[in-house]
Specification:
Layout: H1 36-46, H2 50-59, H3 67-76, H4 89-99, H5 112-129, H6 140-150, H7 152-160, H8 166-186, E1 194-196, E2 199-201
Helix pairs in contact: 1-5, 2-8, 4-5, 5-6, 6-7, 6-8
């Protein structure tokens, strides 16, 4: 059983804290780089690498992250995941109990800071449960990412050398692909896009 956090209950900042905006109304414009400040803060608080958290956000950016669209998605698929990091309810409830969070699973869709915070705490819990020694074909961050995707039990099996299935192998390949992009974001080599007159653009103004 994971240790219960003694930290005070998390209350996320407003959505425009630090200049970080909510997901735009044009869902195709979602960019994990917009939430770099949240990633750095939450990773530091949880004690996990910011690069791990940012890479997970890139991996989970496959669907539009907008509160209204997530509500529609849940109406169509009640068991859908919520938030920038796509967290399922059962996983969130475990994180909430372990860390005494005072917000609900539904809040993940409306509060980007809270969604990133919950993801970082989940990665922290996975790290606690991962054996110190594991097969050398994976780095620790790769195993934690696999745990985020496939669950703690499967992560521990992969750490012992059990081969991952096709979906987990695909997730691992994409993790390795996106890691460089996430590193560039954190290093400031890939800046969040600006919003001008409700439209998103790159640093080149296009």
């Amino acid at each position: 059983m994971a240790e219960r956090s003694t930290a005070t209950k998390h209350r996320s900042p407003s959505a425009d804290h630090g200049g970080v905006r909510r997901p735009p109304l044009r869902p195709g414009d979602y960019d994990p780089a917009d939430y770099t400040a949240y990633v750095v803060d939450s990773a530091g608080e949880a004690g996990v690498p910011p690069l791990l958290v940012m890479t997970v956000l890139h991996l989970e950016a496959y669907k539009p992250h907008h509160p209204l669209l997530e509500r529609l998605w849940q109406w169509w698929k009640p068991g859908a995941s919520f938030g920038l990091a796509n967290m399922h309810r059962a996983t969130f409830e475990q994180v909430r109990r372990t860390h005494d969070l005072d917000q609900r699973w539904q809040d993940l869709r409306d509060d980007p800071a809270f969604a990133v915070h919950a993801a970082a705490l989940h990665l922290k819990d996975l790290d606690r449960s991962l054996p110190k020694r594991h097969v050398s074909r994976y780095t620790r961050d790769e195993l934690l990412a696999l745990g985020y995707n496939a669950g703690e039990r499967n992560m521990r099996a992969f750490a012992r050398g059990v081969p991952p299935g096709p979906m987990a192998r695909s997730y691992l390949r994409r993790f390795r692909t996106y890691r460089g992009r996430a590193a560039d974001v954190l290093a400031g080599r890939s800046r969040p896009r600006e919003t001008v007159a409700g439209r998103s653009r790159g640093s080149d103004g296009s």
